[in-house]
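SAMPLE LOG
Freezer: B-3
Tube label: C17
Construct: single chain, 188 aa
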Amino acid sequence: MMNGQERLAQQSREWLIAALFDLLAEQPYETITVKQIAEKAQLSRRTFYRAFRDKDDLLDYYDREVGQRYLAALQQIAPQKMVFKDVLTYFFEFWWQERKQLRLLIEQGLFGRMLAKITPMASEIYRVFPAPWHIEGSPTETDYIMSFATGGFWNVLNRWLVKEHPESPTEMAALLMVGLKRLGETED
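STRUCTURE (predicted):
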């Protein structure tokens, strides 16, 4: 349970992230300053520096935070709902909620930074999310499989969310299911 000071610090971080994304919609990341972020969040620079070293640290915090939210959301799926298509739909629904921020990161060339933060979390997701289709393997196998899967899913997100009129999360899951099924059928 957070005390009042911790809640205030968390709220400040959320305001700073929102301010950063508001500024990303207006100007290139390289030109954004800590002063601008703090002013947009209606906080002092001192408050910014209590939470973050610089704007890169703020962006890294968002990347880690959204990854942790995704992990927490996956852990809420009941074991009986762990049908691959349902989990795939859930994946697209989760990231659809982040589409405004992700699109800004894609447009600003910052999406790859996020991938670098999320990929190491992928093996952790694999360990704590006991899906029935997971393979039993060594930690090395798991790391490679999850790096492979994460890279593929990340590229799909990148291609999907940059579109003017992207498909719905349900349509995306169905498209991928058809494609993956076809890939599996060619293994003879």
